[in-house]
Amino acid sequence: MQGIQGGAAGLTASVGAPDWSAPHVPGRVLLLGTDSLAAQSVTTLSGVVTQAVTDGVRLAFTPAGTDDRTFAVKLERAGLRAQPDFLYAPLANPNDPGVPGNAGVPVAEVGSFTQSYLTRVRAPQAWTFLQGCGKTPVAAKTAILDSKVEAGHPDLTGRVAGSASFLSAESGGSDTSTGHGTASAGLVGAATNNGRGVAGVTWSGPLLAVEVLGAAGGSTSDLARGLNESVRQGVKVINMSLGLPGDPGDAALAQALTSAAKSAVLVAAAGNTAGDGVYYPASHPDVIAVGAVAQNDGQLACYSARPSAARPRALNIVAPGGAGNCTGATNATQILILAPGGGYTLGAGTSFAAPLVSGVAALMRAANPALSAAETKARLLGNVNSAAGQPLLDANAAIRAATR
């Protein structure tokens, strides 16, 4: 596979050979560079059912009696670039009882659980600063690439300005039980000053709910379509609380990420297994990789992905993600999030750290619309606190830097 040239930062996304052992959608492969096919390639595809995904990328459905890897080898011998249609998954900490869809924890009184994470990232100070400048804590348009967002949740009233769905049949249908997408959207933009539940990092502004994760996850083609649609609709920030361990060799998604990063700040959860290195797409050089700190800022959460010997890609930033099942964890050390059915629950994971970073990036781009995606990313990452030897999100410093 050839490297994909990076975005504004001038980095190169080095994409290795596709990993056919990684989770992927069976019965089809992705073809890259299909906008200019040689005659031999066209002949090889004769009789093969294909479907456009994005510019230069098509799905090719594996003929009956042939496995995907064998089909890909045949296509590659004809001069085509072929790879799996990888499956990505949401990154809430699966072992935590507070994660929606698990056993759950009692949340009798929402008021008994405060959003301490907002204080830890200095969001109130950022809000006060913006108000002092005559601005409200409004978000630039932000896309939530995730499972289905419950737009009718009382704490999302007026926030979800649009939606799109790109689930393939293999995604298992809409995920209506875990509330993962609803939780991610709420952390960025739960309605504030509405007398209900929780406050989002941003008080107002449009959210675009892009459904790319179903009950069985989401594929490369789902994510690529979601990224392209987000850019088409003019979003300024894209949150991706999803990923796949390791480096799957996903050139198709790398191409979509590089393209999207030209206009949008890309933020992704780093992953929830400490020994596997930073997950993909967080490890893409154009993406902000977000790790999680737990009940205090002295150490990374036990589950949070971090650099490993095999995969040394560093975290760009960390934010509170809840204690999960770490030693000493209690209900009070988790993250208060929106739950399906208009409720609230507790959860943990880098899935819930990433939206805090996305929310701050959205505040920055609204406070100073002249900032490019690259400038926003640089000022966000250049104005941080320190936690566990990692750069800790500092909303106040980042907002001030954005308005200078």
Task: Tell me what the structure shows.
This protein has ten helices and 19 strands. It is α/β, with parallel strands linked by helices and 404 residues long. The chain has a seven-stranded parallel β-sheet, with helices on both faces. Helix 5 runs parallel beside helix 8 (350-367) and helix 9 (373-381) packs across helix 10. The protein is globular and about 65 Å long. The relative contact order is 0.17. Mean pLDDT is 86; it is low at 1-12 and 92-106.
Please specify the SSE layout and strand pairing.
Blueprint: E1 4-5, E2 12-13, E3 24-32, H1 39-44, E4 50-54, E5 57-61, H2 68-77, E6 81-90, H3 116-120, H4 123-132, E7 142-146, E8 160-165, H5 180-189, E9 207-211, E10 218-219, H6 220-232, E11 237-240, E12 242-243, H7 251-260, E13 265-269, E14 287-293, E15 317-320, E16 335-339, E17 343-347, H8 350-367, H9 373-381, E18 385-387, E19 390-392, H10 395-402
Parallel strand pairs: 7-9, 7-11, 8-9, 11-13, 13-14, 14-15
Antiparallel strand pairs: 1-2, 3-5, 3-6, 4-5, 6-10, 6-12, 16-17, 18-19
Please provide the ordered H/E string of secondary-structure elements. EEEHEEHEHHEEHEEHEEHEEEEEHHEEH
Number of strands: 19
Secondary structure category: alpha/beta
Report the sheet with the most strands, covering strand number, pairing sense and barrel closure. 7 strands, parallel
Shape: globular
Helix content: 10-25%
Distance between the termini: 42 Å
Spans where pLDDT lies below 50 across 5 or more residues: 1-12, 92-106
